[in-house]
């Protein structure tokens, strides 16, 4: 019991529990949707919106692209139904890499408002990624780019090139910058929100190209989600980020060539 109490007092416990819970929900939803789709012959077995069961009927006409591509191209009702899925994906994939900053927020906040500060940071951090997803997926859906057989290869190639740029390295460095946090009152809330916004923006600048591939490669497929999460987290926590960024770029380049070959066959 004492060990469990120590774990629960960890500054990152709330975020860690949330990530574990979200991965559990995504895994369960994927298993259940795959089973039901296999029985019914539905194309939604690898589709993007199985978690939004209540909005599924409305979303059929609001999604474009091949099965498995998360692309918005419908009315506002489709967007509203998709937001929970986008938030879950952002929580599962991006929050693990932000754990050092979440720990910083917890340790540099007064003990009585530690969990509140962590929640404030996570909410603002996720809002940055949800906004990016809405804008990018909407644009991709409107252009019909995901329908191209070479779209996945192009997205992977773009991500590979971005990994090798100086701008990518500068953005990755910005992900580690901290800010002083006021101790209490509305200034404390504003300070944590400002830190979450700037850290989320730095993370977005670093990983936007990697996450763009989700619109083409076919999320949510748990294997691809887990692979991206692992790459992003390893790069963010690496002691030699420039080296690891280059290695990830080379791997993405190889994946782009493989995707292009499959598209042309």
Summarize the structure.
The chain has 265 residues and is mostly helical.
Can you offer a commentary on this structure?
The protein has 265 residues and is an all-alpha fold. The protein is 72% helix and 0% strand. The model is unreliable at 40-77 (pLDDT under 50). It has one domain. The N and C termini lie far apart (59 Å). The chain is globular.
Share of residues in strands: under 5%
Low-confidence stretches: 40-77
Mean pLDDT: 80
Please report the number of helical segments. 12
Spell out the helices and strands N to C.
HHHHHHHHHHHH
Q: What is Rg?
A: 19 Å
List the helices and strands and how they pair.
Blueprint: H1 2-8, H2 13-40, H3 56-59, H4 76-94, H5 99-107, H6 114-143, H7 151-163, H8 166-174, H9 185-212, H10 214-217, H11 222-237, H12 241-264
Q: Which properties best describe this structure?
A:
265 residues; 72% helix; mainly alpha
């Amino acid at each position: 019991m004492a060990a469990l109490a120590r774990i629960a007092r960890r500054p990152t416990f709330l975020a860690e529990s949330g990530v574990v819970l979200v991965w559990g929900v995504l895994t369960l939803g994927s298993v259940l949707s795959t089973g039901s789709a296999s029985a019914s012959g539905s194309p939604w077995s690898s589709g993007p919106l199985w978690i939004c069961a209540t909005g599924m009927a409305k979303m059929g006409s609001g999604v474009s692209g091949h099965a498995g591509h998360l692309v918005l191209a419908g009315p506002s009702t489709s967007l509203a139904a998709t937001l929970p899925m986008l938030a879950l994906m952002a929580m599962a994939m991006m929050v693990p890499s932000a754990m050092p900053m979440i720990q910083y927020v917890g340790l540099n906040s007064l003990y009585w408002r530690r969990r509140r500060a962590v929640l404030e940071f996570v909410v603002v951090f996720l809002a940055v990624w949800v906004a990016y997803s809405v804008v990018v997926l909407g644009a991709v859906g409107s252009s019909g780019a995901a329908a191209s057989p070479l779209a996945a290869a192009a997205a992977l190639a773009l991500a590979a090139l971005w990994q090798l740029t100086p701008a990518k390295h500068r953005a990755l460095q910005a992900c580690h910058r901290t800010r002083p946090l006021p101790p209490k009152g509305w200034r404390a809330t504003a300070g944590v929100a400002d830190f979450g916004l700037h850290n989320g923006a730095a993370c977005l600048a670093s990983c936007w190209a990697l996450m763009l591939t989700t619109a083409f490669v076919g999320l949510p497929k748990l294997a691809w989600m887990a692979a991206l999460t692992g790459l992003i987290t390893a790069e963010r926590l690496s002691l030699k980020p420039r080296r690891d960024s280059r290695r990830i770029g080379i791997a993405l380049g190889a994946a782009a060539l493989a995707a292009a070959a499959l598209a042309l066959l």
